[in-house]
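> Could you send the Urate hydroxylase PuuD prediction when you get a chance?

Sure thing. Input:
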Amino acid sequence: MFDLAMEWLNLVLRWMHLIFGIAWIGSSFFFVWLDNSLRKAPDQQAGVLGQAWLIHGGGFYFTEKYSVAPPQLPAELHWFKYEAYFTWISGFFLMGALYYVSADLYLIDDKVLALSQGEAISFSLISLVLGWVVYDLLCRSPLGKSDTALAIVGFALLVLATWGYTQIFSARAAYLHVGALIGTIMAANVAMNIIPNQKIAVAQMIAGQAPDPSFGKMAKQRSLHNNYLTLPVLFAMISNHYPVTYGHPYGWVILAVVMVIGGLVRHFFNLKNQGRGIRYEFLVVAFLLTVGLVFFTHWDPRRVTLSEGATFAQAQAVIAARCTTCHAARPTFDGITEAPKGVMLESPAQIRRFASLISQQAVRTETMPPGNVTEITTEERQVLGAWIAAGASLK
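Output:
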């Protein structure tokens, strides 16, 4: 019953995280687009930065943005904050339900670093808090006065964190933690900078004072950071389905390049919406980097010469010993109630059907078994690879 409840908890949390994430990212993308699409009009009021006309759902909309604030506080203000808060909260509990509860399976890899469950969870929590503190101090330092310098240093530190995670956790968990770190920074930007600064401006207007524009400027900087971090965090969220990325021995390099690709794509759209022309060179570079990643993931320095003459019987013996504890109609591994993704490897027909998947996950990327919990050896992986390379015959 406990395992069934955990499976439903995982599903519900994942669904909630997706819903809240769509709401947050959707509103974020819209407001960035709106900011970039504002245009000055000859008849606009004093203090108005720009205006935009929109059409959607059969109706027309007119929007103005003030340089600092309107002359009078309106009776009703719509705040955009809970989308960010609930996205982070649901994501944190989802990570806990999967990676903390099943730390031995998904979070810890003894080949990377032998940790206890408590140590691994502590590293995880401390890294998220420390990551936000370092980022926030950078933004408040003199470096924060230059968007370019801050972006370069911030990117370098994020890449360093990515590499660091690969030295502590399993490859899959490392990618997940990069996404969690970015998501924490983004949500904390909203909760601890953007919204508080907006509340200061509102409080000043209620008190009959002119709002201090510096608070709005700081909030705008953090909002811009969130805009450029969105695509990398989305990639990290879905990466657990693609071991060809995190399973590579230089997975941290792949994720670093993906961050650059995401930034280039966002920059293309930001410039386009600002009316500064369609700069296709950013998309071209992003495309070339993506193609480069395809070739890079094909190269694997761990790859060794495969054993010759591996038979199906040899491959089946390895699978029976190392894989079917989970990939069976009735798994025997503690906490696994059904074959992951419906992949069962008990009969010869099933094994041959999933031969390419075995090659991808157990041989090429070595991401299965998770955390190598069944202690499959390099020689056994070679047997599987040799059998598959020879045509995956049942003889």
